[in-house]
Design brief:
heterodimer, A: 221 residues, alpha/beta, Rossmann fold, eight-stranded mixed β-sheet, 6 helices, B: 315 residues, two-stranded antiparallel ribbon, 10 helices, globular
């Protein structure tokens, strides 16, 4: 338990243990907060989430916050989707609010576990652009040295240059549209709009809104 | 049959079972390097003072699959160095696997050999890893033999959107289930012959004697039988943003002279690339050898021929 009274559980995701923080207890559907690249979960309930009627959780991604830092890197956005999947396995259904890289992970898992994700809210934050639609220049990142502490420098490098083709991102919207049973599985609140996000916005089932409106909408489902 | 199995010892693991295969030689030296906290097993054939030559294996393989090919190159006057990729063979299993991590491990091994430029031969995934590292560090390589490591887009039959959604949903949930629970799984144990037979599904063109030879090298012997050492979380398929076109698009600018050796017989592990797929992307001045009647594992099917092509090109 942290100073702010946040209870933390350790959950297993593949070979690693992740920290799932309870920002506020409650009943009903959970809101799961997903931080941006290089960040960690908030220490206390963010103002933005205070109106959510149910419990509020936040997940530290692999190599971030209180989650385990693996040796030797090897990060991908799909790995983070797996991190969120491990949290959903514990929580059941949840509405997701993702910042930056967390927004991209929220989009992927909305398509990957369409019946568990009851709305994904995509917000500005670090790591939202990734590496663009195609791989950038080759870079030998052997010069990095991790100390085993978060945030893992391998995560910071690898997850800021992973390719995010627009037609790959929209695949996940289509999965969510076909299989979630929701008419609006994705809400985009970002002002920064990398190519993958502009493509996502062009798909049916995706609305633009302020995060407060999006939270109220999904709370009412 | 040309191979002979010594009777298995009664105890587990530490027995010295070996299977012989014509021309196969275990490495003269083994060592390990630390790649950012990951222990990587490195192997060397030939004279330690000879000029170095780096060999890079493909996905789901291990350096021991060079046990016939590498000694031929060593006899031609090379110190031949290879390693087991992370999660493969005797290298450490890791929490995460990725293409960039493999490229990084490649650089660690390279740094442990020399800072001078050297020739390199990569097979399949190994050819792809080398292609990427050459782009980043062209000054570290002299010449490059790429054995069936040119990715070419496969033709998928057209399927209706709804069907594609169903297929992808299955793939995604399968991957997520495996990601969450995979590490608790263990490989199925079997007899030496059973493991060789299982490997044959991936390597249908390779002789069973050869696959039997590989078992005591690439597998460990537990109480209940042999198990491939390959990390059980490794699996085929999956998904991700990567496209073979990206690999092709990087080829024309390659500054290090390349010999592409492409087996034309299609098989499960191969790209199925044809001359018309690859030639438009070949770097200027590169050589391409398309081998009729040879599959993806050209250096195993025809080690002398592929070694001769390689040595001629490298000299």
């Amino acid at each position: 338990m942290s100073e702010a009274g946040v209870v933390t559980r350790r959950i297993r995701a593949g070979k690693l243990e992740l920290a799932l923080h309870t920002l506020r207890e409650g009943s009903g559907r959970a809101l799961l907060w997903l931080h941006g690249l290089g960040e960690r979960s908030p220490d206390a309930l963010p103002e933005l989430a205070s109106g959510w009627p149910g419990p509020v959780y936040a997940l530290d991604f692999t190599g971030h916050g209180d989650s385990e830092v693996p040796a030797g890197g090897g990060y991908s956005a799909e790995l983070l989707m797996g991190d969120v999947d491990a949290a959903l396995h514990t929580l059941g259904e949840a509405t997701l609010l993702g910042r930056g890289l967390g927004a991209y992970a929220a989009l992927l898992i909305a398509g990957g576990r369409p019946t568990r994700v009851r709305g994904a809210i995509l917000c500005d934050g670090h790591g939202i652009t990734g590496g663009g639609p195609e791989p950038g220049g080759s870079m030998p990142i052997g010069l990095l040295s991790g100390e085993g502490t978060a945030p893992d420098p391998f995560a910071l490098v690898e997850l800021s240059r992973d390719p995010r083709p627009p037609d790959y991102a929209t695949t996940f919207v289509r999965q969510a549209n076909e299989l979630s049973g929701l008419s609006r599985p994705i809400t985009v609140c970002c002002r920064e709009r990398p190519e993958w996000l502009r493509a996502v916005e062009g798909e049916p089932g995706v609305e633009r809104a302020e995060p407060e409106e999006a939270l109220a909408y999904y709370a009412g489902l | 049959m040309s191979s002979a199995v010594k009777p298995p010892a009664s105890g587990p693991s530490a027995d010295a079972t070996t299977v012989s295969f014509p021309g196969a030689e275990r490495p003269a030296r083994t060592r390990s390097v630390d790649s950012h906290g990951v222990r990587i097993a490195v192997y060397e054939w030939g004279d330690a003072d000879a000029p170095p030559l780096l060999l890079v294996h493909g996905g789901f393989d291990f350096a021991g699959t060079f046990d016939v090919f590498a000694p031929i190159l060593a006899r031609a006057g090379h110190r031949v160095v290879s390693w087991d990729h992370r999660g493969h063979g005797d290298s450490e299993h890791t929490a995460l696997y990725s293409w960039d991590a493999d490229v990084r491990d490649l650089l660690t091994v390279l740094d442990s050999i020399t800072q001078e430029p050297l020739p390199v031969i990569g097979h399949s995934k190994g050819g792809g890893l080398v292609t990427q590292l050459i782009q980043a560090l062209p000054h570290r390589f002299t010449r490059f033999v790429n054995i069936d490591g040119v990715p070419t887009p496969r033709r998928h039959p057209d399927v209706a959107d709804r069907e594609r959604t169903r297929m992808l949903a299955k793939e995604l949930s399968g991957w997520l289930d495996h990601r969450r629970e995979g590490p608790s799984r263990v490989r199925k144990a079997g007899t030496l012959d059973e493991l060789a037979e299982r490997r044959r599904r991936m390597n249908p063109r390779l002789p069973l004697e050869w696959l039997r030879y590989l078992v005591p090298i690439g597998a460990r012997r537990d109480e209940d039988g042999w198990r491939w050492k390959l990390d059980p979380v490794m699996r085929f398929g999956g998904f991700g943003p990567w496209r073979p076109e990206w690999g092709l698009a990087r080829l024309p600018g390659l500054s290090v002279p390349m010999l592409g050796v492409i087996g034309l017989e299609e098989e499960p592990m191969g790209w199925g690339g044809r001359a018309e797929d690859i030639e438009p992307w070949a770097p200027r001045g590169s050589e391409l050898q398309f081998l009729e009647g040879v599959g993806h594992f050209a250096h195993i099917e025809e080690p002398e021929r592929v070694a001769r092509l390689s040595l001629d090109f490298l000299s």
